[in-house]
Amino acid sequence: MAFQCSTCGKTHDGLPDVAFRWPDPYFAVPEAERTARVRGDTDSCVIDGDAFYIRGVILMPIKETSDHFGLGVWVSQKRENFITYMENHDTADIGPFFGWLSNSISFYEVDTWAIKTMAHFQGKNQRPLIEPEPSDHLLYIDYSRGISLERAWDIAHGKG
Predict the structure, then answer these.
(1) How is residue 133 annotated by DSSP?
(2) pLDDT in tens, the chain (160 residues)
(3) Exposed site from 8, 59, 73, 100, fewest CB < 10 Å?
(4) 3 found inside a domain
(5) Cα dihedral value 5, 111, 151, 131, nearest 10
């Protein structure tokens, strides 16, 4: 299995991850106001100086393999934890920190907005691993039990 990366243009082996560029609240800020109200990059986002988000990855096991399907999502953080992360982003010696999932994932029928999560920090220039808290939501079930390779490919191709 190979795919061409839309970010770097190179061909990679394996299954591509799917990611959100911004937390959903970013899109609630009028486009003309974003420069003044939003500070962010590919890993962190602050809106109006009082809403803090970090980007991480939910790794869903692919059933009957040792592979995972990565889902890049944003989770909220309280100010203190956000500052700790920003000052120590390259260490695994912090956290885990609680956060609310801050993306509505369209391939789930029941909204994923504000699902409880824990962010586990890895250091070594890697994004945090995001762990959904136990619930009866299909996102948690997929995370804890795994998904089929076919479903992972459907999600990666926007057919989720």
Answers:
(1) P
(2) 554 545 556 665 667 889 999 999 999 999 999 999 999 999 999 999 999 999 999 999 999 999 999 999 999 999 999 999 999 989 999 999 999 999 999 999 999 999 999 999 999 989 999 999 999 999 999 999 999 999 998 888 776 6
(3) 8
(4) no
(5) 70
> What's the domain range around 117?
17-156
47 has which bridge partners?
A: 38, 51
User: pTM, whole model, 2 decimals?
Assistant: 0.90
Peptide bond connecting 128 to the previous residue in cis, omega within 30 degrees of 0: no
Residue 10 inside a domain? The answer is no
Looking at the structure of the chain, the number of domains it has is 1
Tally the C-alpha atoms within 13 A of residue 138's C-alpha that lie toward its C-beta: 10
